[in-house]
Fold these 3 entries.
Entry 1:
Amino acid sequence: MNSSNPCNTRSRYRWVIIGAMFLMVFICLGFCSSNKGLYLSAITEALDIKRSLFSVNDSCRYIATAVVNLFFGALIAKFGARKLIAAGFACLTVSALLYAKATNIWMFYLGGCFLGIGLSWTTTTMVGYVVNCWCKEKKGTIMGFVLAANGLGGALAAQIVTPIIYEKNNAFGYRNAYLLVAAILVAVGVLVVSLIRDVPKGMEGEIPKKKAKNTSWEGISFAEAVKKPYFYAALVCIFLTGAALQGINGISAAHMDDQNLSAGYMATVMSAHSLALTAAKFLSGFVHDKIGLRKVLLLCQLAAIIAFVSLALVTASSTGMVLAMVYGVVSSFALPLETIMLPLIAGDLFGQKSFAKIMGLIVSVNTAGYALGSPIANITFDILGSYEPVLFVMAGLMVVVALVLQGVLTAAEKERKHERV
C-alpha cells in the first residue's frame, strides 16, 4: 500500500481498515470486557475472596485506562495507530494469562492494569481516532457499525466461555476460559496488525473542502475548550455516566445469580444483551447522523434508567425472569453512552482542531467513573447483602445527569454557532 498518495490510500483502503477495526472490537471488547461479570462469582468462590476486594481489579483496569488515555494524543502522534494497536493486543494477552495463572489477589490487580492499557489502544478511543482520520462523512454510522462488533463478539463469547467457567466439578474452570481467550487474542492480533495502515501525516481529521451533511467542523483548540464552563460540566456528566453504567454492568450477572437464576438462563440473558448491543451501537450512530446528538443521548439515558430499575426487581419468579431479559436487552441501548457517544461528543461539541486530545480526556474521565462505580456497587453488597439499593440510586443519578447534559448541549450549540459566524 503506497502511503505517498493520501487520497488514493483513503479511497482504496479505508474499507479494509474499517473491517480490521470491526474484527478488533469483536474480539477485544467481546471476549475481554463484555462478559467480565460471568467470571465474578466463579473466581471469588474458587479463591474465597470478597467481591468488594476482587472488584479492585476493575479499579486497576479503569485507572490504567484513564491514565493512558490522558496521553493518547501524544502517543498517537509519536507511534501511530498500528504500533499502539499491536501493543494493545500484547497487553490484553498478558492480562488473560495473568488471570488464568493468578493464585493471589495481587496477580488479578496486575492483570487488571494490563487489561486497561490493552483496551485503551484497541477499543473506543482508537476506533474514534481511526474512523475520524479515514472517514470524512457519516462518522456516527461508521463508528456505530464498528463498535456494534462488541455485541456480536460478546454474544459468541458468552456461549463459549460460560460452560467452561461453570464446568461441573471444576471450580477453576475460569482459568481454562482465560487461556482460550489468550490464544484467540494472539491469532487475531497478528491478523489485525497486518491489515492496519497509519494515515499519512497531514491527513488526520481532514475537513472536507465541500460542505456536506454530517461532515466534521473545524472546531476550537484545546486551550479554548478548557476555558468553557460547559466543558467541565460535560466531563462531570461523562464521569457519572461511566460510574453508573459500569458499576451496574459489572454486577448484573452476580445479582441474577444471587436471585437464583440458573447459569443457563443467565447465559441466555447475556447473549440477548450482546446481540441487542450490536443493533444498539449501529442504530445510535445512524440515528445520530439523522437527528443529532441531543435526542440520541436522551434515548440512551432513558434506556439506562429502565434497565437499572428492571434489574433491581429481578427474582427467580416468571415475572422476575422477564425483567432480567428486559434488563439484558434495554441496557444494551444505554451502553453507547460510554462507547460510540464519546467520540461523537468530542467531535460535535469541540470539533477537529484538538480531536485526539479532547477525546482522550473524555474517555479518560469516563473510565475514571468506572473505577468508582464497581467498588461502590460491591461495597453496598458486602454491607447490605444486596445490590438492589445501589441499582435504584444509579437510576436516580441518571435522571440528574440527563437534565444537566441537556444544559451542556444548549451552551455548546450557542458557542458553536458563534464560532461559525
Note: The domain at 6-202+215-420 is CATH 1.20.1250.20 (Growth Hormone; Chain: A;).
Entry 2:
Amino acid sequence: MLKVKLIEDKKIWDEFVSHVSIHTFFHSFEWADFNKNIGDQSEKYGFFEDNKLVGVTLIIKVFAKRGTFLFCPHGPLFKSDKINYWNFFLKFFIQKGLEEKVVFVRVSPALAEDNKTQIMFKKNGFRNAPIHMSAESSWILDLVDKSEDQLLSEMRKTTRYEIRQAQKREYTVIKSNDFKDLKIFLKLYHQTVSRTNFIPFSDKYIMEEFLAFSKNNQVMLFLEKHDNKIVAALMVIFYGKGAFYHQGATNPTGRETVSYLAQWEAIKEAKQRGCTFYNFWGIAPTDDPKHPWYGLSLFKKGFGGKRVNFVHAQDYSIKFWRYLPIYLLETMRRLKRNL
C-alpha cells in the first residue's frame, strides 16, 4: 500500500528526479517556486512503499480566469511505471481536486504514448484535454559518450554548414547568467513576437523563470553576436541530467539562419555540465508543412536526435457544468491557432 507525504527536502527530491529516465525541469523545486512567484500555489508530494520513496509529484493550483484547476506538469515521476502506482496517483489527484474545490484537474505526464496508458486514464474517468499544457512532442539529443566531432557528424549537412559559416564570418556567442542581460533577450523576444505573431509569455513570466533557476546556476543565456549586434538569444535551463531549450528569440534584420551557433554552444555547455541529453523542447506533432511549428521543428531536427511523444494532457472534471464552457473555449483557441 502506497503512502503519501509532503516533501520539503530539495536534495531528496532532486536525487530522485535525476535518476528517472525521462524528466524535465517542470518537476523541479525551482518550478514550484516559479509558480508561486507568478501567483499560483504548489505542493510537492512523495509516494512511499515500505518506507521507500518510489515516486514524486508536483501539483500546482492554477488560478486562471477561466477557472481554478490543479495541474501536474510532466509528472508524476515513478521509479518504475507500475500500473498500480499510476492508479493510486490518479485517485489521489482527483481527491485533491475535490478537497481544493477546483473546477477540474489536469495532468500532462512525461509518459510515453501508448494504448495501455490511454485505457488507464479512461478507466479512471479522465478524458483528453482540449489543449496541451506542456511539450508533448519533444526533440531530444542524446549526449552520452559522444564527442563534439561525433555530434557534428550526426547533424544534418546544412546544420553543420551553418555552424561553420557563422564561425567563419566571426559570429560569436556570449554566455551569461546575469539578470541584466535578460533585457537583451526580452528586446529580441518582442521583435520575434511582432514578426511571427505567436502567443508570447509575459515579461514577468520569463523574468521569474530566469530568477527561479539562476539561484543555483541552472539557467544560461546564449547571445549570438555579429557586427556588434545581438542577432539571436536562447535561454537554456539545466536540471537533473538534462539541458532544456525553453525560450528563444532572433533579430528580424539578421541572417535568416542565425542561432545555429548559439544552439551549438548550448549543446557544448550541456556536455561540459555532465548532461546526458539536450531537450530542444516542443516540435510539431507531425511533419505537415502547414503546421505553424513546421519551420522551427525542421531547424531543431537538423542537430540530430529523436522525437519523444508523451501522452496528451488528461482532464478530470470536478464540476462538470463549470468545466464544459472551459472545454469549449480552449477547443476554440486550439482551432484558431491551428494546433
Note: The chain has eleven helices and 15 strands.
Entry 3:
Amino acid sequence: MFPAVMTVLAGDVGGTKTFLALGRIEAGRLTIEREARFSTGDFAALTPMVRAFLSGAAPASACFGIAAPVAGRRIKLTNREFWIDADEIASDCGIATVRLINDFAAIGYGLDALAESDLETLQAGQEQPHAPRALIGAGTGLGEAILVWQGTHYEVLSSEGGHVDFAPVNAAQIALLRFLAQADGHVSYERILSGAGLVSIFEHLCATHSPSSALRDAIEQGDPAAAISAFGLDQRDALAQAALALFVQIYGQQAGNLALTALAQGGVYIAGGIAPKIIARLKSGDFIEAFRAKGRYREWLARIPVKVVMNPKVGLLGAALAAGRGHEAH
C-alpha cells in the first residue's frame, strides 16, 4: 500500500535523452504534475540534472529507470561517461529513498499505470486476475521480463531472455540462421528482434533479391531500419515487405515462447520502440498466428491476452510507481 498522499520523482535515463517527472500518488493513483526532457550529454552525472529539475521541490522518494545493467548504487551508462549515484542524489537533493532499476523493469511497473487507450489489442483472450504476465519489447535490443503478483501489485522479474538461442521453424528461418551465424557463431533472438536485426534480415534477403533504387537511397540517407519498416508498411518495396514479414513472424514466435515459459495467463505485453511503429503489420494476423503455433498448446495460447503498449512514457510512469513502493519498503 502507498501512503495516502506522496510526491515522487521519476526518471527515464538513456544515453541520448533523459526524462524526469514529478508525480503525485494519492490512494495508489498516479498523477504526473511536471516533467522535462534533458540531453544526457549536457551533463556528466544525473545529480546536477535532478537538482536543476527539482528547483526546490522535495519529493519523498525517487526511482530512475536506467538503460544499463543495474548492480549497486553507483552506475555508469554503458555508452556514455555519465554517472548515476543514488546516495549522492539522496543527500544532495534531500530525498529519503532513491531506487535504481533497469529501464525495461520500469516499463513492467508502468503497465499498472496504463489506460486501455494506451494499449492496442492483438488478441483479446481471457485474462486471469493476478496470474503471471509476460513482457517483451524489441527496440535497440530485445528486452524480456516476467511479472508476478505480490499481494497488492505486480513485481517485475528481470530477464536476459533476449539472448537465448534463436530456434528457426521453417526453411526461410534456417537460411537466416546460417547467414547470421557466418558473422557470429551465436545467434540470439536479439540479433533478429531489434532495429539492427531488421536490417540484418534485409541484408540476408538482398543476397537473392534486389531492393528498389528508392529504398536504397532512403537507407543511405537515413535510419536503415526505419526506411525498411516504412517501405514495407507502405508496400513500396517487395524486399522490405518480405523482411518485415519475417521479422513479425519471429517476433510472434518468441512472444509465444515467453508466454509458455511464464504461463502468462495474466497477459502478454509487447513494448519497445518498434511495435507502435509497425502496429498495422502486427495487427494483420501473422504475429498472432506465429504466437499460437505451438502444437498442442495452440488453443491454450489462443486464450492469452496479447496487447501492444502504445504510450512512450510507460517507463517514466513505472519509475514513478516504483518510487512510491520504494518509499514504503524503506
Note: Residues 5-114+311-329 form a domain with the Nucleotidyltransferase; domain 5 fold (CATH 3.30.420.40).
